[in-house]
Amino acid sequence: MESTLLHSFLKASKLRRWLADPSCPDFIKEIKALYDKIYTPAISPEDDESIPSRPRTIPEDLRLLAAKSSRTVFMRARIKVRDIVYSSSQTHLGNSLIQFYPEGDKTRSLVPGSIKYIYSADGRHYSLAVQRQLPIETLEVDPFNQYPYFPAQTYSTQLSTALEHVCTDWIFGHYARWDFSSDRAVVLSLSRVSFILSLILGSDYVIH
């Protein structure tokens, strides 16, 4: 069952990539246009990056990160970075889960966290306010360390209450999270899973 779902997902990804390719025949693109009108939800002004968002009152927990000289801030529900959509946790929890390089330092270990706000002081350059996934301080040995080809780690189910400023170019990619107990969760890097699958299944199944 898992294999069938995985192959269906990868084939659908390849189809979407082909439909977006300039070499795709025009008559196929016409069918795609009809399909999009039926099944693609309308884009709200908050999701359309070409439409300027309106300033809002800065939430209390965002004041330490936002401009102190202003009482308002521009906010979005989603943002696209390198053709990948990321969302605030209130908009879509799964799309809010990201791994990023702390302070943009790529020599440091990746950190998982959830995007709470996507904000900007000027309405043009957006940053992320992220809550880190808390580690388990009492965990001596992570049980997933024995599986080198399954890039999962054990974390707490809780997020930090403090918000952390993250630039969009510090993002590595999405991660999946599953709470397997009341206080422990599995964090799985989806970007690394994609790379490993391409090695196992071959280049025909690479997700771009």
What do you see in this structure?
There is one protein chain. It contains 4 helices and 11 strands. The chain has 2 domains: 1-40; 41-205, SH3 type barrels, CATH 2.30.30. Strands 1, 2, 5, 6, 7, 8, 9, 10 and 11 form a 9-stranded antiparallel β-sheet that branches. By secondary structure, it is of the alpha+beta class. The two termini are 24 Å apart.
Provide a quick synopsis of the model.
The chain contains 4 helices and 11 strands, in the order ααββββαβββββββα. With 208 residues, it is an alpha+beta fold.
Task: Reconstruct the topology from this structure.
Layout: H1 2-19, H2 26-39, E1 55-57, E2 72-76, E3 78-81, E4 84-87, H3 93-96, E5 97-100, E6 111-120, E7 127-132, E8 152-156, E9 164-167, E10 171-179, E11 184-189, H4 190-201
Antiparallel strand pairs: 1-2, 2-6, 3-4, 5-6, 5-10, 6-7, 7-9, 8-11, 10-11
Features of the shown structure:
disordered C terminus; alpha+beta; 4 helices; SH3 type barrels
Which CATH class of the largest domain? Mainly Beta
The major β-sheet equals: 9 strands, antiparallel
- Give the overall shape, derived from the CA principal axes: flat
Query: How many separate structural domains?
Result: 2
Tell me how many strands there are.
Answer: 11
Distance between the termini: 24 Å
Poorly predicted regions are 203-208
> Percent range for helical residues?
10-25%
Q: Helix and strand string, N-terminal first?
A: HHEEEEHEEEEEEEH
Could you say which structural class the secondary elements and strand pairing correspond to? alpha+beta
Beta-strand proportion? 25-35%
